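User: Second chain of the day. Same drill as before.
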Amino acid sequence: MKKTIAILLSLIFVLTLTITVKADATVKVGASITPHAEILREAAKILEKQGIKLEVVEYTDYVQPNTAVEDGSLDANYFQHTPYLNTFNAENGTHLVSVAPIHYEPMGIYPGMTASLEELPDGAVIAVPNDVTNEARALQLLAAQGLIEIDPAAGLNATPNDITSNPKNLQFKEMEAAMLPQIVGEVDLAIINSNFALQAGLNAGVDALAVEDSESISAITYANILVVKEGNEETEKTLALKKALLSEEVKTYINETYSGAVVPIF
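Assistant: Same format as last time:
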């Protein structure tokens, strides 16, 4: 009888452990709608085969997905690049870290009231993101086209105040990055992050007048990363998610789906 009871207790323990593991086999990740959430859903197919459910929570801003990882309501997020992450941590006292670069999205210059760079009039208005890192990136893209010159010391922290030459007297309209696609028709040109461009039906590989070079320091620096809270870099959830995102299946999906608007960095 005692042996039977012992066996029953062992079975109950194993069953309870199995239920606990299964109940915990969910990875909750915050992401921008396009392309991050779409890429994650491709990775979800790989995780599903391992008995792991990937829950994707979509965001339209750059703040909430970080605060949610910090407070533990998300396991990870996938929407940002390292300069933005570093700035966010410094300004908000958060403890977030990158565990892998996944892709980069070439920022593009899109036509608005002016159809080409050659037709750009004196005093033209250029819409750019208003956050520090993405505005610098936009200005460097303009500099790469020979439209402005920037103090080399400013690098990827450049602001309009660092412009040393502006022969066309370009004016800059600073706006929240997500709003830029909505006002393209109201400015001469708009410089837009690919994720927001894609949401608006624009593709950097097709519609942009100019894009960042794939070998540029911007492309390397601004690779979009998988982020977790410090201390969670080696958890089973993190490692499984990272492996899925860095898989050949996901690489193929990115290349075939986005036609150069999103480029795998692995």
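The two ends are 59 Å apart (CA to CA).

User: Great, on to the next one.
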